[in-house]
Amino acid sequence: MAERPEDHVRDHILQFSLGKCALGSQGYNRVLLQLFGYMGHGKSSLINSCKYVLGDGDYKRRAKTSRSHGGVTLNRKAYRLTRTITIVDNRGCSRFNAFETGEIYAQLGNFLPLNETVEWTNDFETMISRLEDSEMDPNFTDLTVPIFVYSVKKGLSDGEKKETKEFIENCRLMTGVYPIVVLTHKTSGDSTKAENDFKLMGVEQIIKLENYTKRDHHKTPERHKAVLKFLYCALEDVKFQMKYPRNPRKERIERKKFLIKFLHDRDIKEREDRRRLTRHGHIADKSAGTGYPLK
Questions:
Q1: Is 234 in contact with 94 (CB distance < 8 Å)?
Q2: Distance from C-alpha of 93 to C-alpha of 157, rounded to nearest angstrom
Q3: Cα 191 vs. chain centroid, distance in angstroms?
Q4: Is residue 124 part of a domain?
Q5: What is the pLDDT of residues 67-109, one digit of tens each?
Q6: Is residue 89 part of a domain?
Q7: Where is this region: Disordered (predicted)?
Q8: CATH code for position 134
Q9: Looking only at Cα atoms, what is the longest distance across the chain?
Q10: CA 80 – CA 82 distance, rounded (Å)
Q11: Closest by alpha carbon to 185, among 207, 217, 211?
C-alpha cells in the first residue's frame, strides 16, 4: 500500500527534535504547546484528538471534556505527545478581563507548576508571592507556543473581540510568538466570520477543525489532516524561531518582568476604581443628608 501524504507529516511530527533546528536546541529541552481560551471551547478535546491521530490506535479520552461551554479543566495539566512535544491544557476563563488574564499570563509564562490546580486570585501580593515561589525551581528549558482555542458555535461579541485582541497581542509580547488560533466545531457555526475576526486581530495562523470525541471518533481523512496541520504549523513556527539566537534564561526574566508590570498596573487601576466608587458613593450619600460613604 502506498504511503499517504499525511503519513509523512505524522512521521515528521513524531521525529521532530530541537537539536535538529538551525542553531541546535540552544538550551531548550522540549516544545510546550500551551492551550488557552474560554472555558468549554474544545481545549481538552483537541488534546484527545492529537493523541488519537499521532498514536494511530484506539480513541481514548485522556483529557476530560464537557459538552457545554462550562468547561471542566481546573488544573494546568500536561500531556506528552512525543519525546520533544508536550501539550498543556491550561485552565480556561469565562472572559478576558484583567482579573483572569493575570492568572492566564502566569500559566503562559510557566510560572505556575504543571499538573496542579490553578486557583484564580486578583490579589497583587498573592500573585507576587507565587512568582517568588517559582524561583525555587525555575523552568527555562520549555519553548512555549501559545495556542488559542475558540469554538465557532459561540461567536465573538464586540466586547470579547476587544478583550481577545488585547490578550493575543500580550501573548505575542510575552512569548515573542503570535498565538496560533484553532477554531473548533467548524461545521457548527460561521467559521468564515470567526476566521476573519481573528485575521483582523493580526493572527497569522488559523486552523479550522472538528475534534474527535468519545461519541464521534470515526476516522476521516479530513479530520486527521486538520489535526496534523495544526501540529505541523506549530513546529514550523518553532523551527522559524530557532533560526535566531535564543537565551532561555533571559527570556524567562523578560516574561517575569512583563507579568509583574501587568499585575502592578492592574492593582493600581483596581485601587483607583475603588477610590472613585467610594468618593462617588460619599457624595451621593451626603446629598441624601447622611454624610457617610455608601456601602
A1: no
A2: 16
A3: 20
A4: yes
A5: 544 444 467 889 999 999 999 998 777 666 666 677 788 888 8
A6: yes
A7: 273-295
A8: 3.40.50.300
A9: 89
A10: 6
A11: 211
Question: How far is Cα 280 from Cα 288, in angstroms, rounded to an integer?
Answer: 13
User: What residues make up the domain containing 207?
Assistant: 5-287
Does any domain span residue 15? yes
Is 149 in contact with 37 (CB distance < 8 Å)? yes
**Considering only CA atoms, which of 249, 273, 270, 252 is closest in space to residue 125?**
270
Can you name the residues that pair with 116 across neighbouring β-strands?
A: 76
The total of structural domains in the chain comes to 1
**Confidence (pLDDT) at 60:** 87
167 inside domain: yes
- How does residue 134 score in pLDDT terms, banded at 50, 70 and 90? confident
Residues 155 and 163: their CA atoms lie apart, in Å, by 14
Nine-digit cell at 170? 500580550
pLDDT of residue 117: 60
Q: What is the mean pLDDT of residues 226-239?
A: 96
Whole-structure pTM value: 0.84
